[in-house]
Design goal:
With about 240 residues, the chain is of the alpha/beta class. The chain has twelve helices and five strands.
Length: about 240
């Protein structure tokens, strides 16, 4: 799906914002749809907005750093910190968090996207595993805080000054991390935080449902990208149809 958008100068991602608009827009409430997968991304849907005026972008790491640490500490036996229980036992390594929050990606204005190139294994090894003397729970706590604070920082830096937000609707695997979700609530006290489940969108299936909708649009010859989100020059039909 990404290729057609990139051919028009876009970043090819994120592509879910159009579906977020179709399913979660509200005439009176400003909404942010937050998906916490490996990377965290948001769709900003102001109250009563038209589709061409919504925007979204990747905020930084979602579960990617936390999961990478868990795989390392358990020799691959566990792939994630269930419920954030281990991270909740640790303490934030403040100098490390401060260093990470000053990385250029977080200050760069949208549209922007991220992936393993920015926050994958090399990132985990360079900034976390090379930290001598740090305990596993403290590193996990710091990685969790990086996800939470980078989401809050993105909203504060690029959204809240111009767009009132009443609700933050969370989906993706990170929605199961109760500690992470509680930290978001503490960092964003004026915004109501809800899981996508409450809107009939299972947190583990919302992205799959979104791409089913995008596939249907492709079948009907309708564009599936939003230029304001990806940076493309125009809206285009995504993907390819190969008929027998």
């Amino acid at each position: 799906f990404r290729t057609a958008d990139m051919a028009q100068g876009g970043q090819g991602a994120p592509l879910v914002p159009l579906v977020d608009y179709l399913l979660l827009r509200d005439a009176r409430q400003g909404t942010v749809a937050l998906n916490i997968g490996g990377i965290a991304n948001i769709t900003v849907i102001p109250a009563g907005v038209k589709p061409q005026d919504i925007f979204g972008f990747d905020t930084g790491p979602g579960n990617m750093v936390m999961d990478g640490l868990m795989r390392h500490f358990t020799g691959g036996r566990k792939g994630y910190d269930a419920g954030g229980r281990l991270a909740a036992r640790g303490k934030v390594i403040e100098p490390l968090l401060l260093e990470l929050m000053h990385l250029p990606f977080f200050r760069r204005r949208p549209p922007k996207s991220a992936g393993r190139e920015q926050f994958g294994q090399e990132f985990v090894a360079r900034y976390f595993l090379a930290r001598r003397g740090a305990s596993s729970v403290d590193l996990l706590r710091t990685a969790t805080e990086l996800t939470a604070q980078s989401i809050e920082d993105a909203l504060d830096r690029f959204v809240l000054s111009d767009h009132p937000v009443h609700r933050l609707i969370v989906s993706g695997g990170g929605a199961h991390n109760r500690f992470l979700v509680s930290r978001l609530g503490e960092l964003l006290p004026r915004i109501r935080i809800q899981l996508a489940d409450e809107y009939g969108l299972p947190v583990d299936a919302k992205e799959a449902m979104a791409f089913a909708v995008l596939a249907d649009r492709t079948l009907h010859g309708l564009p599936g990208n939003l230029p304001a989100v990806t940076g493309a020059r125009r809206a285009v039909v995504l993907g390819k149809l190969v008929r027998p």
